[in-house]
Amino acid sequence: MFSADLLANAVVSGILLGGFYAAVTIGLAIVFGQLDIVNIAHPAFIIVGAYVAYILNSHFGLDPVLVGIVAAPVFFFAGALIYRVYFFAFERTGQESLSGLAFFFGLMFIIEVVLILIYGVDYRLVQADYIGQTWRVGFVDFPLRMLVPFAVSLALTVAIHAYMSRTFIGRAIQAVAQDRVALQLMGADPVRIKQWAFGLGIATAAIAGSLLIVIGPVEPSVGRQYIGRVFAIVVLGGMGSIQGMFIAALILGVVESMVSTFAGPSWSPAVAFGVLALTLALRPAGLFGRQ
Amino acid sequence: MKPVAFWGALAAVLAAGLALTSVVANEYYYNALYVILQATMMAVAWNILGGFTGYVNFGSAGFFAIGAYTTVALNKALGLPLPLLILAGGAVGGLVGLGLGYLTLRLKGVYFAIATLAMAIVVETLVNNWSYVGGAKGSYMLTPEKHLWFDSYIQMLFVVMLLLTLSAVAVSRALSSSRLGRGLAAIRDDEVAAECAGVPTLRLKLVSTTVMGAMMGIAGAPFPYFVTYVEPGSAFSLFIAVNAIAMPMIGGTAHWLGPVIGALLVGTTQEIVKVTVSSEMNVLIVGVMLVVFITLAPQGIVGVARKYLRRRAA
Questions:
Q1: Which residue in B126, B181, B215, B274 has its CB near the most CB atoms, within 10 A?
Q2: Quick one: pLDDT at residue A291?
């Protein structure tokens, strides 16, 4: 059962998977890691992104990843709108701990049920030339349906990291995370900055969704499996650190791939939560903690 | 509510339920009422931790399924009768709840909420891989031949669930109006301040999570007999978890009556929509009601009613 090429393939596919997890998580790393908004509906937005890619791909034959990038601005505005509702209903009145959580929980549930109502529980997939191809280096496989999402995700992570550390708004977002009162004293409006950041987080869900459906078929409830993964990665990466998030995503991808290769794929959903529980118990600040 | 009025109301509801079984024969009504009662019990249980103590539990479906699968396993292994299975479901659920209570030592707020979700998914993964109780394929339950003096098995299950739910409401009321309930409220408002004021926070939280877990386990224990075919997808359904959160939030979490009102309102609406529109719509409606209510009336129906009564009194 145990052999070198099996191990090598498990590690490589774990790294590719982990790279994709970074795209899934990066929006939450901004929204939860920087703004402390517990958007447990984030995976549900990713599923919406996957369905947008599916619809435009099956009707017009557009490339799914391209669709994801084009749809991102629309997601941005939807996200900004949701933040406004969230702010006025919960954050302003200090209700975010109980009601805010329940709000996103309800939102996640509505998205899932609406998708089931429209498209049913069948698995949907996209067509693209590269999806069926595989590159082979030695005895290690690089399926393009994993390699393309890995590359796009890496580019997205680098872009977001540059945006957060180089641009004015990116730095303002980090300033909100550090001290919102001080920011207010500087004459900036923390609510507008948070609204921008939340929109940005949701915009990444459009791209992550298109990558998700490139990797494999999607149905409305697969989003739930990602809740554990994304929170495990954000916490392991140390709340808001983009580099930390990327490394944590790779770690989770490799561990999951190992477990599914050597113990069976039915055990892999529990891996993320195992990682999360261990992190919270042993090192709550994560690998690259902000405090 | 005065004790006399409260116990009188419980007795009246129980009498009405028993009277129903000798008047109505149509099984649909008992099915619908069973579903509503089960949801009420889950909502009351959720509120003991979520409403009284302020810890959000997203893993209600996990506790429910623990009760259901305790029944499946023990029925297969020992062939125990229903009352013992209900006790066993409560015991296992309570034990897991106790374990969850110790988690609150390290995990506060959102981390606790995510940990409960984690617990539900870990338990689901275990059940999926546990072939003795059917694994991912699920398993069938035979409906027993005997059903006391009732006309059918579902009538008996309905009365059992009615008794269990009324007991849960009584426990919840007793908890909230006792010294213990005031301690829980202190934890909800400010845990550190409560600890400083001498409230034994850990012990109270353990009581709270254990009672919640036991109640949810009990609510799930008769479920295999109700559906006759259990599989992880239905026992761990997100719908159960959403209902358990939505009903108290809609009814009002601070008062013991809140989850009951919310559950009756949402549960009845769901049953009506299921019959008149479609069963998918009935799932959607609870999500929409949850979001609308917490956005517009964060204190729930009880909160709105209290505000109205206070204004009228002033």
A1: B215
A2: 45
Q: Report the helix count and the strand count for chain A, using DSSP H and E.
A: 11, 2
Q: Which two tokens stand for residue A154?
A: 């890496």
Band (B141; pLDDT cuts 50, 70, 90): confident
Inter-chain residue contact A102 with B295, CB threshold 8 Å? no
User: Percentage of chain B surpassing pLDDT 70?
Assistant: 100
Structure tokens at B87: 């006790």
In this prediction, residues B104-113 reach a mean pLDDT of 78
pLDDT tens, B194-206? Answer: 889 888 888 999 9
Burial B278-314, CB ≥16 within 10 A → b, else e: eeeebbbbbbbbbbebbbebbbbbbbebeeeeeeeee
Of A16, A19, A18, A41, nearest to A201 by C-alpha is: A41
> Residue B279: is its pLDDT beyond 80?
no
* H-helix or E-strand spanning residue A135: strand A134-137
Q: What are the sequence ranges of the domains in chain B?
A: 3-237
The residue whose two tokens read 């580099």 is A243
Residues of B (73-132) whose Cβ lies below 8 Å from A: 106-107, 109-111, 113-115, 117-119, 121-122, 124-126, 128-129
Whole-number Å distance between alpha carbons of A36 and A106: 18
Spatial distance between the Cα atoms of B90 and B228, rounded to a whole number of angstroms: 20
Residue whose structure tokens are 């996990």: B62
> What is the rounded distance in angstroms from the CA atom of residue B14 to the CA atom of residue B31?
17
Q: What single letter denotes the amino acid at residue A28?
A: L
Taking contacts as CB-CB distances below 8 angstroms, the residues of chain B near A85 are 295
Structure tokens at A101: 């959580």
CA-to-CA distance for B66 and B214, rounded, in angstroms? 10
Instruction: Provide the CA A200 distance to its chain's centre, in angstroms.
Output: 12
pLDDT in tens, A101-138: 889 988 998 999 899 989 988 899 888 888 888 888 87
DSSP annotation of B254 reads: S
The type of residue at A73 is P
Global confidence as pTM: 0.87
Q: What are the CA-CA distances from residue B84 to residues A61, B89, B149 (Å)? A: 60, 9, 19
